[in-house]
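Case study 2.
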Amino acid sequence: DGSSDDIKPSLLLVVPNPQKEETHSNMIEQIVNDFNSNSETEFNRNTFVIHSSLEVLKQCKLFLGDDAPILSQGLRKCILPHTNMAVTLFLPEWADNVHPSQQNDGEMDPWLNLVREEQVLELISARVIGAPMV
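Prediction:
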């Protein structure tokens, strides 16, 4: 019907609630699972997780299943078990708290991808351009 209620955000920024003892990785897992369960499409879904903590991203690997990630279009993606959803974990190169040694660790980890700020802008722009017209 063209209402603005049909528009879903393509970028989500969240902060854990310390009063509920939420960790960043727990929250990311919940968002990914909620996004997957609320998906009404049968097509493959791609979810990009960008976090400036190498440790948080390593913790996220626990919910991605035991299968090694696949290489697709130069990115390492994990397919969630029993779904058609791919999750790509990114460590931002430009973040102030990311040390070069962490970048090296991220580059060597088969589950992680390093991302430049320009790449994030391209990913977001591509998502907005691909959004349905209302």
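Residues 31 and 114 are 21 Å apart (CA to CA).
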